[in-house]
Design goal:
This protein is mainly alpha-helical. The protein contains two helices and no strands. Helix 1 packs antiparallel against helix 2. The longest helix has 33 residues.
């Protein structure tokens, strides 16, 4: 899960970032066009990136067991019959 989520997030996020930067650099004179197309980039590239991050986080939670908040009671025992633990 972590590998798949990391790859999805890295590839979709970097591709969206590169295309957005290239589009902004190409049309510096008409930022109104960028403002109209930017939400499309967020939907097309942002949703898969978010899903990749969530898959990575889910895989990380599956990998590590949850931490116990308290230490269990210690039980002492002895094999000797005449000695109490």
């Amino acid at each position: 899960m972590m590998a798949v989520g990391g790859l999805i997030a890295a590839l979709c996020g970097s591709c969206t970032l590169v295309i957005t930067i290239a589009m902004i650099a190409q049309s510096l004179d008409s930022l109104g066009d960028v403002a109209q197309v930017f939400p499309i980039f967020l939907v097309v590239g942002g949703i898969p990136t978010l899903l990749g991050v969530l898959l990575f986080a889910w895989g990380r939670r599956l990998r590590r067991p949850p931490r116990s908040g308290r230490i269990g009671d210690l039980t002492l025992s002895s094999d000797e019959k005449d000695q109490a633990p």
